[in-house]
Design a protein that fits this description.
The structure is a homotetramer. By secondary structure, chain A is mainly alpha-helical. Chain A has 2 domains: about 10-80, Winged helix-like DNA-binding domain superfamily/Winged helix DNA-binding domain (Arc Repressor Mutant, subunit A); about 85-120. Chain A has helices spanning about 10-25, 40-45, 50-60, 85-105, 110-125; strands spanning about 65-70, 70-75. A two-stranded antiparallel ribbon of chain A has the order 1-2. The longest helix of chain A has 20 residues, at about 85-105. The structure holds a DNA duplex.
DNA sequence: GTGGTCTAGACCACT
DNA sequence: GTGGTCTAGACCACA
């Protein structure tokens, strides 16, 4: 379920963040679902609790989670989320950069289009 | 020409790397072009020479540049580059993640498709 | 344990690289072993931490080590290493050159053969 | 005839040295043969004369060449060369290191033996 | 504690 | 002139 690669250059807490984001976006974790407690998750994935803590905090900052003191942390409902124009702009920039790199690494426009349309369909069904 | 943000979470040398990559991929810097010397660029962007050198090294590792001792650093010819399958896989992963995020931030599939097709055309003409 | 020659034409960080490679290949350092921290090793061999770090980076690039942020650097498991055909070709070239030089310096083919067979056996038992 | 790779990490003068050594050891250049003048060779291989100069000097130091002022530089006769025990020791060390690396990069003892015997025969006929 | 980045400034080798 | 190495010492982020 959780893919952690200690040898990666990405810090562990970032990997935890990405993993949880993926689970949310794939619909495995749904709004109002309760997440495991920091200590619990840290045991499950054998990672320092501080690291999990940091990941939860970051996810909260990005609006994916919210914490109710004494009860736990939960997935944010869609209606609560506000589209963040700055974030979208940033994502667009990244997308542009990514496409440049794909092309620079020898991938043809047609190939890239195929790849992306595939990805879009795949997600659409998830 | 060069966009550096000292406050960014990205390290300076990484930003230098990204900037140069962009210039290469946009065709501003062409194969066999000579880059500014380490010292020169460091003066231009008011950054320590070591930092610039680190960036150049990384770009060399990634195959964008090559160094001729005592002469300077130059842009790699396309024909010299060999496609790196690991790199491509990594880019594909990133793309997937990016699309997930776009969708999570409220962008519809159709919108994303439009955005990407636009980007693909734009580059095709560059 | 560590042989450093400050007067050598080889740079210090390269010597550190070679030393550690030797320890790894001789089996003194085994997969998953933790290496001394950058600061620690720099103290031991009285060399600047930056120099040690450069050596570690190079070893990581060559696949001998990997880094876990905040924890330390470790020896790569054999199974994780992928044979690098370019590297092998390079080594073959070096070998060829080396044999030429041995011969040029007066060593007979038979002597060279003996020498090499000895070396092969020696390692086989290590 | 001459293989120069500007992108190599090896300095150019070292590559010139290696090339000439190879020609000598392969018997293409024979004792008492006259080498092209510094200026001539520098033109032929389109390299800075200083670089060729440095290569010749190094080859002289190692005993491959000798210079007669006003006449040119020539290949040393075999009888003039004195076996250098230090050099031989150094070469043995290098050989040992090289075999270690081959093995570390996944080559089996048997394979290495084959490779080396091949190389020995190949040279024996040259 | 760990590695990672950055600066300032010196010295060297190669072209 | 070029890149490459090294030192000393500071600061940051991660676990």
């Amino acid at each position: 379920m959780f893919q952690l690669d200690l040898k990666s250059r990405k810090s562990i807490y970032e990997q935890v963040v990405d993993n949880i984001k993926s689970l949310v976006m794939a619909g495995v974790l749904k709004p109002k679902d309760k997440l495991p407690s920091v200590r619990e998750l840290s045991r499950i994935i054998t990672v320092n609790p501080n690291t999990v803590q940091k990941a939860y905090r970051e996810l909260e900052r990005q609006g994916y989670l919210y914490t109710v003191l004494g009860l736990g942390t939960f997935i944010t409902e869609q209606s609560e989320r506000k589209p963040d124009e700055d974030k979208l702009n940033d994502l667009r920039k990244q997308l542009r950069q990514l496409i440049q790199e794909l092309r620079y690494n020898g991938m043809e426009t047609a190939e890239i289009r195929c790849l992306i349309l595939d990805l879009l369909n795949e997600k659409g069904q998830a």
